Amino acid sequence: MGLLDAIKRAKEQKKPDLAAAFPAGIQAAPHGGPPDLTAAEPLQPHTFLGVEELNKILDSIQDVPTLPSIANKVIQAINDPQSNAKAIADIIKNDPALTARLLKIGNSAYYAGYSPCASVQNAITRMGLLQIKRLVFSISILDAFDKYAASGFNIKDFWKHSIAVAYNTRTIGKVARFRDTEDLFTAGLLHDLGILIIIKYMPEMFDAIMKKREENPEISFYHCERADFPISHCEIGSWLSVRWQMSREIQSVIFSHHQPPINSTLFEKDVIMFSAVVYLADKFSARIEAGFLNDSTADIDKDIFNFVFGEKISEEEVLGHLLKNKSIIEATAASL
Ligand SMILES: [Fe+2]
Ligand SMILES: [Fe+2]
Q: 41 with 188, same domain?
């Protein structure tokens, strides 16, 4: 029995119990993530799967990818005050593919005007340690999923979308004077992680959604999931983020970036802000890039916009800030 069938069957079996166990409108959240407080959306045939059930089914995935060790090593070295650019370059140089990609970005149009970038240490000086950290993290996660190709689907489009959302999440955090942290960047980068699990382990679900979207491009990937399937990439990605021991904020973003619970009193504002900022970055990125995963209209919920920015800035002004990210997004995506 495939993963999707197992989830469908568990849902059928558990529906009566869990419907009674949760208050109306609140849906069980997997893996200790936040419950879905906006489950009242008409399209949703609620999952009603308990944490235990879903964990058990997803844990049956044998060969789930681990976080690449090179990413951990570089991040640790950058966070270590004793470390220096040479030590970090030495770690990166052990991975020739990673080295080649970093040099390609260092020599891209984004850094035009500099002399050619010939070594990793050169690239570190040019881009700065934080930028190197972001790139190494992005590239090595991408490599972990590299083999996850689906028929008729270009995985690079997926990563371009993820990278766009990562940079735009960071900028929105900064413009909203929330924060400008690496956690925001990572949250943006990983927000759609669950889609990769769907591609690999539930290809029949992925194919059906892509086919439906081909005929109805105005319907988003998420809405197709909610309308036709017992689970979405949000719950599945949240499970993987727990397995990868990501921070609570990142787990929460992966779980609720399509419906940030801005009216909830159950979570700290900080945690909700993460989801709301990624929600906006996702929508704006779709507007800028016509991202493949999103509604072509990409309408933005005014309440979520105001939750993040107050009323002191317009959508057009935010868009103006985000357009400045376009060249670094292009340069990063082109190096993949
Ligand atoms: Fe998503
Ligand atoms: Fe997305």
A: yes
How far does the centroid of ligand 2 lie from the alpha carbon of residue 122, in Å?
33
**Do 319 and 237 sit in the same domain of this protein?**
yes
For residues 95 and 224, membership in a common domain is answered with: no
Q: What is the 3-class SS of the chain, one letter each residue? A: CCHHHHHHHHHHHHHHHHHHHCCCCCECCHHHCCCECCCCCCCCCCCCCCHHHHHHHHHCCCCCCCCCHHHHHHHHHHHCCCCCHHHHHHHHHCCHHHHHHHHHHHCCHHHCCCCCCCCHHHHHHHHCHHHHHHHHHHHHHHHHCCCCCCCCCCHHHHHHHHHHHHHHHHHHHHHCCCCCCHHHHHHHHHCCHHHHHHHHHCHHHHHHHHHHHHHCCCCCHHHHHHHHCCCCHHHHHHHHHHHCCCCHHHHHHHHHCCCCCCCCCCCCHHHHHHHHHHHHHHHHHHHHHCCCCCCCCCCCCHHHHHHHHCCCCCHHHHHHHHHCCHHHHHHHHHCC
Shared-domain flag, residues 36 and 104: no
Please report which ligand is nearest the Cα atom of 188: 2
pTM confidence score: 0.78
- Give the pLDDT of residue 49: 65
Number of the ligand closest to the Cα of 189: 2
pLDDT tens digit sequence for 4-43: 888 888 777 765 544 444 333 334 444 444 444 444 344 4
Give the closest ligand to the alpha carbon of residue 255.
1
Q: How far does the centroid of ligand 2 lie from the alpha carbon of residue 161, in Å? A: 7
Q: What is the distance in A from the centroid of ligand 1 to the CA of 275?
A: 11
* Cα 119 to averaged position of ligand 1 atoms, centre (Å): 37
- Ligand 1 centroid to 74 CA: how many Å? 28
Distance (Å) from CA 117 to ligand 2 centroid: 32
